[in-house]
Amino acid sequence: MNARSGSERVTVATFAEMKRSGDPIVMVTAYDAPSARVAEAAGADAILVGDSLGMVVLGHPTTLPVTLEDMLRHTAAVARTVTRPLVIADMPFGSYQASPDDAVANAVRLLAEAGAAGVKLEGGRHVAPLVERMVAAGIPVMGHLGLTPQSVNVFGGYRVRAKEAAEAIGLVEDALALEAAGAFAVVLELVPAEVAAIVTEELEIPTIGIGAGAGCDGQVQVFHDLVGLSGFTPRHAKRYLDAERLMTEALSAYVNDVRSGSFPAEENASHASEDVVAELETALPIAGGRDDEGM
Ligand code: KIV
Fold it and tell me: How far, in Å, from the CA of 68 to the mean position of ligand 1?
């Protein structure tokens, strides 16, 4: 029996077990009740309420404008919808950089108010002391290395990271520092497959890849990329459905039906009895109504 076949809630301990047993960990983002319901029904082990929310749901050009309030609202929607998957909330830009006290307080809100089972934050050695403090406070932490979108202005774009040996060595050191600090898993985003496979071998905690090859312990993808709702499909993703086209066709049919008078149909309506209609007509004009004198 592995985590995939069970109906028991997935926990950080399940992640550790899956690393040991070699069962791939499947994670997908979700941001609201419908996407969470679909992710759970599809059998995902974990749901990331990612700050990709900013781009794929809220229409921002980057993840930077996403607020803690955004994350609380969307995490709560996901957490109250699912029962089995582990729900991880991203800590948005600015919610953990200013001070460790603020960071812990913000992470506590994501667990206590929104119902997340853990948080994810970006960065390596420089955030390790913070990760240690959060874990000591009872907050499970997932790390995030490689392309860290909250640092887009430092990197100058969304490019594959750790292609050179020096940066790849730094990536391994960052991953080991996160593990030593108590992180329960690390996301590796847009790093060469060979580098991700080495990091995965070096770590006792699972790596979850996105654009990091098949050698990671698990994979995470953005829901909207998988179903064709993000406008384009990044190279690291695969589109399993053209939902935008299908949904547009469905809504066009609705628009046409309303305009042609074929919707709503008889079966979409409810009816009042003849007596009620007669009583209503007798009561007209109703005082204060449009036809009432003085209007
Ligand atoms: O916000 C997000 O969706 C993420 C994934 C890309 C890992 O951080």
Answer: 16
